[in-house]
Specification:
about 475 residues; 2 domains; six-stranded mixed beta sheet; five-stranded mixed beta sheet; 16 helices
Length: about 475
């Protein structure tokens, strides 16, 4: 029944954290749950993981909106369907064109409309009209009753309780930059968009069993196979894993002779020992991609600094990725790569601020726009900015807001709105507000990134994924080849 659920990654709209959604659904008796954040795919993997922990079937989707208008909800039947939905959102962002008012033809998705862009008889086999529980009693007078096979239950979830609804309204005012007295009901969710129990929803649609059957058929047909696996990383540099190892060995041994001289047994032994571990752990492509980026930078006269635990590797030193001699400083390679390290290794490569964009452009052109993107970072609601935002929503003059910000303890008892601001400010603290660009994290994936996320074009002209560095580590769907930071 739950085909349209939002987390707080429906920015300035939803109020439920990704891990909280399945927990609430379990209490309501749900066996399957569809995540459909508004024009956002940030927490897909978090949601899938949380659902599996609660023994709930996770299904992925997207609620497509143009401005304030709900166009349609897309639900992925499988991973190919998720790719189709992410691609649709990506194309709109990269082209700057609005989303189509009617969903394009899709092969692995279901589409649910609230406002039909065409006659119900013209809907494709996978397209449906959504009916809210409160609308059931009016179906007898609607022409839709003549098309029972094209109707599904539409029971949006946006908040957990009444406090969540009030928080939602404040978020909508922040988004629209208006005072709360000016909030139009059409610009926010209905107060009933909470988890109603499964038995309540079944009772609501009991007069129309076909609606329940259609809804259940969608839930039964959809599945998500998203897994955390290093197989999603960029797996090869040359196109063949064995050739990658041969090339890396040639470059590392040659570089060892250049760095240490032709007969330095200790350096050569350590080089081969590291190469064995790198091959065993599947990081040959990782080293070669980073070497390729550094090689381009050197070819155009850019300087760089390789930092972090990558400096512990003699192979990285031999490839000119770093300039720190690990033998001279007695640095241990195992700090960078070992079978027991929980997080994947990464190279921190610093370039000058006026050279970084050119290096980034090379990476995009070298590895392809379908496989390359910048990491996102979340700007969250926090600190004094929350007080200022909520103060504006409540219509307080700037002087009053300044007083609450500067003297919170004194105003808590004396200002009529202070307690209200502090209470709801605490609720939205750390909610994501908008996506921004990570300082320099670059993703290079094996499969097209649309299998994992939609992309958003940023003002600098490079797209970002919808998740941050922690999401990239949780779902190794891409290789964090370098972090091109200003130096």
């Amino acid at each position: 029944m739950y085909l349209n659920c939002h987390t707080y990654y429906s920015l300035r709209y939803g109020t439920i954290p990704p891990e909280g959604l399945p927990a609430l659904a379990k209490v309501a008796g749900a066996k399957a749950l569809v995540l459909t954040d508004i024009n956002n795919t940030s927490c897909a993997f978090q949601f899938v993981t949380a659902c599996r922990q609660e023994d709930i079937k996770p299904i992925l989707g997207i609620e497509f909106r143009e401005g304030r208008e709900l166009l349609y909800v897309g639900i992925a039947r499988n991973d190919e369907g998720w790719r189709e939905l992410c691609s649709l959102l990506t194309e709109s962002s990269l082209s700057g064109e609005p989303l189509p008012r009617e969903a394009p033809e899709l092969q692995h998705c279901y589409i649910i409309y609230r406002k039909l862009p065409k006659g119900v008889e013209l809907l494709r086999p996978y397209e449906y009209a959504g009916v809210r529980p409160e609308e059931v009693n009016h179906l007898y007078s609607s022409y839709l009753r003549n098309y029972p096979d094209k109707l599904v239950a539409f029971c949006p979830v946006t908040f957990a309780d009444e406090d969540g609804f009030k928080t939602h309204k404040l978020l909508r005012c922040i988004d629209l930059n208006i005072v709360i007295s000016k909030l139009d009901p059409r610009d926010c969710a209905k107060s009933g968009e909470v988890f109603h129990s499964l038995s309540q929803l079944e009772d609501a649609f009991s007069r129309y069993p076909s609606i329940q059957r259609n809804t259940q058929a969608i839930l039964d047909d959809c599945h998500t196979e998203m897994e955390a696996s290093f197989l999603h990383n960029r797996r090869t540099f040359t196109g063949d894993e064995e050739d990658d190892f041969k090339l890396l060995t040639k470059l590392a041994v040659s570089g060892c002779g250049r760095r240490y001289g032709p007969r330095h047994k200790k350096a050569l032994d350590r080089t081969h020992r590291e190469l064995k571990v790198i091959r065993q752990m599947g990081f040959c492509a990782y080293f070669l991609i980073t070497w390729d980026i550094v090689r381009y930078a050197h070819s155009v006269g850019y300087f760089h600094v390789g930092r972090g635990s990558g400096a512990n590797s003699i192979v990285a030193y031999n490839l000119d990725i770093t300039d720190v001699d690990p033998l001279e400083l007695d640095l241990y390679f195992e700090r960078f790569i070992n079978p027991h390290r929980s997080s994947p290794p990464d190279f921190d490569i610093d370039f000058s601020w006026n050279e970084r964009d050119d290096v980034t452009d090379y990476i995009f052109k070298r590895y392809g726009k379908e496989h390359t993107a910048l990491l996102a970072t979340y700007n969250t609601f926090k600190g004094k900015s929350i007080i200022r935002e909520l103060g504006k929503v409540l219509g307080l003059p700037k002087a009053d807001i300044d007083t609450i910000v500067d003297e919170p303890l004194a105003t808590d008892k004396h200002h009529p709105f202070a307690r209200h601001i502090f209470r709801y400010g605490k609720m939205i603290e750390k909610f994501p507000n908008y996506l921004s660009i990570h300082a320099g994290g670059i993703l290079i994936s094996e499969r097209p990134l649309s299998y994992h996320t939609a992309l958003q074009l940023m003002p600098k002209g490079f797209p970002i994924v919808h998740f941050d560095m922690y999401g990239a580590e949780d779902l190794p769907g891409c290789c964090r080849s370098c972090k091109t930071k200003p130096g």
